Amino acid sequence: MRTSLLITFCFLFCFFRDVYAEILVEEPLSFGTFAIIGNSVKSSISISVNDRASRTNSIQIISSGQAGQFRLINYPPYTRLLITPLLPQITSVFAGTTEQFTLTEIDIQNSVITDSSGEASIRVGGTLESSGNGGSYLETIYNLNIMLSVNY
Q1: How many C-beta atoms lie closer than 10 Å to residue 121's C-beta?
Q2: Which is it for the CA torsion 79, 70, 14, 45, positive or negative?
Q3: If we measure between CA atoms, which residue out of 104, 145, 123 comes closest to residue 9?
Q4: Residue 89 forms beta bridges with which residues?
Q5: Is 19 exposed, middle or buried (0-12, 13-18, 19+ CB in 10 A)?
Q6: What does the DSSP 8-state code read for residue 40?
Q7: I need a surface site. Which of 81, 91, 94, 119 has the fewest CB within 10 A?
Q8: Least confident of 45-49, 100-104, 130-134, 141-145
């Protein structure tokens, strides 16, 4: 069974003062296409910020994914932004009953400094984990919202 996961939407919690901060998804985080040979043990697939894919146990990579590229805008110039992932996060599917994946890690800088325009770019990788409970996964696209806390 093949499974694809594409992070199509990034949800950002921003705590800000007097600014309407935003995030632009320039390139979504994708875990590519992979197969789960068995789900009797937890297995994982990871994409690093350098686009390196790795996997454990029963996941086989069919086509590699890629790190996400996001741009934070409308922050004060030359400001350090502290970025904290809110984990774990669970995938969802449009239709059908299936096991879900859990986002257990987000590979991201923990801080970044905005430029003179109040913007900063970040790359985002992550690790997904299967349930490992023996249940089955549908051959479908799994969606996931990434939740981050951005403070300054």
Answers
A1: 14
A2: negative
A3: 145
A4: 103
A5: middle
A6: S
A7: 94
A8: 141-145
Give yes or no for a contact between 116 and 78, defined as CB atoms under 8 angstroms apart: yes
The answer to whether residues 62 and 32 touch, using CB atoms and an 8 Å cutoff, is yes
Exposure string over 57-94, b if 16+ CB within 10 A, otherwise e: bbbeeeebbbbbbbebbebeeeeebebebeeebebeee
40: left (phi over 0), alpha (psi -120 to 50) or beta: alpha
pLDDT, residue 61, reads 96
Tens-digit pLDDT profile for residues 16-46:
444 589 889 999 999 999 999 999 999 999 9
Select from 58, 46, 28, 24 the least CA-distant residue to 135: 58
Q: How many CB atoms lie within 10 A of CB 96?
A: 9
